[in-house]
Amino acid sequence: MAELFALLANVWDTVRFPLGGAACLSGAILCIIGTIGVLRFPDFYTRVHAASITDTSGAGLVLVGMVLMAPSWIVVVKLFCILGFLLLTSATASHALVNAAHTAGLQPKIGPMANRGHEDEEEGAH
Amino acid sequence: MTLAALFAVLAGMCLLLVRALLGPTLYDRVLAVNSFGTKTVLLLGLLGFVMGRPDFLDIAILYTLINFVSTIAILKFFRYRSFQVALARRADGISNRGGS
Amino acid sequence: MAYLLGIFFAILAFWMGNSGYYKPLMLGFAALSIAVTLFACARMKLIDREGAPYVRLFGWLAYYPWLTWEVIKSNWVIIKACLRADLDIHPALVKIRTVCKSDLAKVTFANSITLTPGTVTVEIEGDKLLVHGLYEANTVPEAFLEMDRRCARAADPAEKRA
Questions:
Q1: Residue C49 lies in a domain
Q2: Is the ipTM of this complex over 0.90?
Q3: CA distance C81 to chain A (A)
């Protein structure tokens, strides 16, 4: 039985670094995807949705990857602290942002966005 | 692979700077800066792992909290043009939003 | 007193998890900083029911794994929306009514909506929430019924529940 546990620990020690690196890389790629959304989407309210990809799944995957590669328990505790703070504060910050924009009178664009090329720009000029 | 993730996060930060410079309204810029701060936290953690010094995570925790506080402070300042106003509604039920 | 002890143990656990040095000098600094923090909390009148919400801990422990799965599902939708060539989005602004009674449950609900990519809470007025969504089909009031119910079960005290 002890040999089995030793074998499992050995396998885990060899597997966790590639797994953690893959999780970090995919989280970073999700960050880039969220940023592409921030650049592409038409108005402020839709950009908030794209930015929240970075804040939830991008940051979550990167931090989980770092947890897999962590050298000691202290590091794991710190990473979970960062994850908790990020999830709480990013949601609150984006709510504050949207609420401030709405209070200041910034109107969201409503309705399908697929084929609204030129008429949309004319609408915006008014 | 951690190094590749580091450079991917850096590329995302560069793209976000474009939005922060372009952004038509103030709120687009604040959104870009807030998201930039989140990515900075990730960058600090990844940098610590690449260099083999996870002590960087302490700075990352601090940066998370300071990022939140600075976003709220910027929003509050541009709503009231002052830091001297209470953000919560007053006890008499009159909302003090939107200045006067 | 119970709330003070709750905050004390939370701060102590945070310090222990972040320090890694357990020499007498460092533990003395820990005692000093915890004392200063507790004094500041007492001065800001933070030591009350909301400062140490341990009664709801088990409700939240049951709620957040479910929320994680919801976040993953809606992440996939928004990632596809970001990468589509034709920008096939349909933003909508809807007003939904919540069954949550206490402030804590409302905050949990609004925070969950904002945390889920694709929907963001714009404003809270009484028991009505203004929600902006990226796809109109995902933002109809019926889509939030289950999250609302689970939030009320997780954070509302039992005697207030409808």
A1: no
A2: no
A3: 8
